[in-house]
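Exercise 7. Given the encoded structure of a 281-residue chain, write a plausible sequence.
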């Protein structure tokens, strides 16, 4: 889980305080505390990249907990400096990913191939190519579709529910061009959960499937969000006031709204913004 990975990274960072570590990688201190407390399920790619560049932890391991933990000295050398070629390659591949042209896994394999070739490591090159071909045969790399994880948690039901890698029970495929053009979101930050209850009726009904954009670190505009409020997982409409307070509202008029401000905002953890929902006919 991310909580354990970040605890390891912080413990071996050499930084004396959480604030010092957060500053070293440009991370918001409250977000770091949420990570270490198990209230954040996944790093943002830019956060993993900053930790990799500053402290040498491998980006793929930071994001998914898979593979080797640390970069080799050769990889660190390729990543450092303004003229290092790998950041330029990453910039190009990420631009293509954001526009729905290539799959995020293709980015990872492309970088693995480049690093192996730069080191003239034929064994690593063969291994990367083999993994790439196996993924194609297994249908993991489908340029037309994005497989979005569906989690065994529900909004407006139970307490303490958190979207984690361990809660994934299934994947649903969405056409990549639809995600890019209609929703305009990064497909690597999508998650699916179910809605329960009638507090958001008629906009969202009980049993609806919610597609979340989990990359938002904070609500910047009015919208429907899945939130963790004092341990309860809820789907609500949020309205940001000029004072900085947040009004938590239900579309069903029989439920009252609540305004959260000041230190109480620490109770409010955004899980993701609802970008689409579907239901049975």
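Solution.
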């Amino acid at each position: 889980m991310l909580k354990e990975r970040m605890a390891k990274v912080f413990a071996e960072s050499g930084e004396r305080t959480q604030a010092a570590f957060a500053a070293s990688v440009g991370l918001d201190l409250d977000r770091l505390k949420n990570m270490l407390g198990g209230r954040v399920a996944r790093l943002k790619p830019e956060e993993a990249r900053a930790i990799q560049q500053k402290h040498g932890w491998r980006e793929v391991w930071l994001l998914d907990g898979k593979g080797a933990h640390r970069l080799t000295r050769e990889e660190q050398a390729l990543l450092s400096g303004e003229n290092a070629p790998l950041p330029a390659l990453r910039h190009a591949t990420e631009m293509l990913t954001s526009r729905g042209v290539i799959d995020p896994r293709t980015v990872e394999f492309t970088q693995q191939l480049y690093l192996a070739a730069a080191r003239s490591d034929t064994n690593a090159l063969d291994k990367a190519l083999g993994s790439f071909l196996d993924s194609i045969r297994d249908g993991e790399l489908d340029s037309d579709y994005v497989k979005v994880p569906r989690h065994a948690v529900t909004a407006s039901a139970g307490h303490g529910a958190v979207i984690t890698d361990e809660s994934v029970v299934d994947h649903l495929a969405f056409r990549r061009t639809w995600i890019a053009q209609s929703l305009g979101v990064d497909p690597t930050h999508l998650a699916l959960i179910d809605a329960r209850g009638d507090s958001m009726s008629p906009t969202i009904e009980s049993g609806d499937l919610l597609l979340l954009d989990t990359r938002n670190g904070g609500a910047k505009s009015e919208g429907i969000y899945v939130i963790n409020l004092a341990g309860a997982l809820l789907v609500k409409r949020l309205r940001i006031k000029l004072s900085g307070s947040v009004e938590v509202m239900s579309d069903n008029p029989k439920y009252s709204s609540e305004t959260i401000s000041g230190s109480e905002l620490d109770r409010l953890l955004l899980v993701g913004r609802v970008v689409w929902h579907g239901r049975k006919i």
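Remark. Strands lie at 145-155, 168-175, 190-195, 209-213, 223-229, 232-240, 246-249, 258-260, 268-278. Students should compare their own answers with the one above.
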